[in-house]
Amino acid sequence: MSETPGSAALREEAALREEAAKLDAADGLAAKRAEFVLDDTVYLDGNSLGALPAGVAERVADVIGRQWGGLRIRSWDESGWWTAPERIGDRIAPLVGAAQGQIVVGDSTSVNVFKALVAAVRIARGSGDHPEGGRDEIVVDATTFPTDGYIAESAARLTGCRLIPVAPADVPGVLGERTAAVLLNHADYRTGRLHDLAGLTAAVHAAGALVVWDLCHTAGALPVGLDEHGVDLAVGCTYKYLNGGPGSPAYLYVRRELQDRFDSPLPGWNSHAEPFGMRPEFEAVDGARRGRVGTPDILSMLALEAALDVWDGVRVEAVRAKSLALTDFFLRCVEAYVPAGRVEPVTPRAHAERGSQVALRCPDAGDVMKRLIGQGVVGDYRAPDVLRFGFTPLYVSFADAERAARVLARTLD
Amino acid sequence: MSETPGSAALREEAALREEAAKLDAADGLAAKRAEFVLDDTVYLDGNSLGALPAGVAERVADVIGRQWGGLRIRSWDESGWWTAPERIGDRIAPLVGAAQGQIVVGDSTSVNVFKALVAAVRIARGSGDHPEGGRDEIVVDATTFPTDGYIAESAARLTGCRLIPVAPADVPGVLGERTAAVLLNHADYRTGRLHDLAGLTAAVHAAGALVVWDLCHTAGALPVGLDEHGVDLAVGCTYKYLNGGPGSPAYLYVRRELQDRFDSPLPGWNSHAEPFGMRPEFEAVDGARRGRVGTPDILSMLALEAALDVWDGVRVEAVRAKSLALTDFFLRCVEAYVPAGRVEPVTPRAHAERGSQVALRCPDAGDVMKRLIGQGVVGDYRAPDVLRFGFTPLYVSFADAERAARVLARTLD
Fold this sequence. Notes:
Chain A is α/β, with parallel strands linked by helices. Chain A contains twelve helices and 13 strands. At the A-B interface, α2, α5, α6 and α9 of A face α2, α5, α6 and α9 of B.
């Protein structure tokens, strides 16, 4: 008796489920999942909002009840509130390949993009704000997450620069002696494409300009190597793969050699050499703290600090290996389950060009995602036609990947 | 037998303590104290960090556990995260005399000063960034809290303006056709002096310029009357008399008539007309939301929202009446208890010139404050020689005021 198409599909599904079980059994990061608050949902939206690490609630309760409620103002010293921005920056540093003393946490990503770009233009120009004939161009990734582009336009306007939006691959072709600064995303928020941080940084430096990298979609998902590749400035959010919570404070990296020349457009009292001296003249503090602005947002910041505990004992190289294995496996499952042509993967197959998400294009993506979510598979939709599935290796399993592809196929059917 | 000086002092103390008890018994706001987490400390530092409102811990636990932990990404819609900045702005509005739709919450005070000042300069100039011979001066309170001055200097530098620092009383004398914007504090952070918001606003308008008021030391302590006095823009923190928690998000007021011309130097995706359209071209949203920048910091923001519940049923005029009665009474107690000449009150006696704090100058202020805190009376010290005592009418009693003066006298003895 010949086999029916249906039973072939069932055998394929059984094989993939068995493979998922084996991969999960061999996964050195599998135990990390228990450090998060999760349920039966397949949560593939950690590239938008990371899941809740289990230790956050208790820590924040202590910050509110004992530190604020009991110690009140004394907590600025006694509970380490005042030094939180640089202390938590140093917790993020190893995840992005930075030595200590180069990262401060605070403000939103948008605000940090502004600080970084204006400061980069000033350093590139050496001195003065509007030198005649000097470097007067800011290059920006034309496919960037929109806020970076809007802020770059503002930075250009305020520093008398022209904004040049180009695709990342075309960046080297537009660099020259007029280039002041270049703002790039390490991974494209829509397609998940990973850009060549080392190569593009070298190209920008060869033109005598400075580069600002936006790490929102890579920090905590793969090694970044900021120091190794000589990146000048970088920014990133902490609520995606770093699981800091909704709208948790962003961070700013300023390479040590540039810190003395980092001339912030937002020189708040927290970046003063003597913040409690209350002096009318501004004198910038040394080091990464120069990137601070106003009073740090303590509740959100200390929630982030607690969230970073899940990284204890985790090597980011291991995270990257699992991320690639997860996205490879998910793409294989999609290929096996989803009728050919129904979706088009827009995330590159090549590992060197892939972040930690898989983006699938389909014309009815908005509706499809709604139905997926209704069936317990949570990704997200980006206009006009992209389904995004983010894979956070600390808590997503291979079984999750298989189930997501299976439910997607059923939904598309 | 003639009375000894000691017994006269004891009688005076008994009389003041009795008066305090009567004033507390007649205080219509006295019951509000139970809505805060307090202990035996006399907490007179609410002008730096407001005490913890009792409802905050439970609300934040729900935000973390149920909204973030359970609903995760769905909370941006379902838990009202996305609209929090303008919703909470509308909660603050009645406290500062603003109609709905003119305030958004987010970022630090410093960042909001930057937005407000650059936008004010742009509106004052009408169009273009560097017109020849146009308005090119920013006037700033020379006695301002330092961060305002530093940020004003940056705003001036980036908009091609000259910064003119003068004492608030001298502002009218320097205004003219070159004035673009004026940044003023409603109350002086060091002396507690209240400035003439109505009169100075009118003077700035008469010169054709715009005024930005910093309300950090008045919002929640006295009526501000932003709409009534035609203020253009205003900023303030929420962690002093609004009790929002350490470093809780600040706010920005943009008068309705100016909103269409509010051209932010920080045009993040949250201020886009269609934030999820992910369009490369910036198009500003209408209304107060134009003051938003990046993703709002939800934990801190919703803690603030819970903290604002203590204002239910409270008229800010009643708060002002109690504030003046408290500071009057404290000054009387200081006069009665502290040897003449040992401290010099620098806060004006005239009610129209007094905020909600009392500042006393004494040469050894730093040491004195340390000893006061050791005895359970918490104020703070501002370099070089000022003792600050902030009176938050929602939770400070007349008995607190008497005890603070009594312990101060003992400490100074």
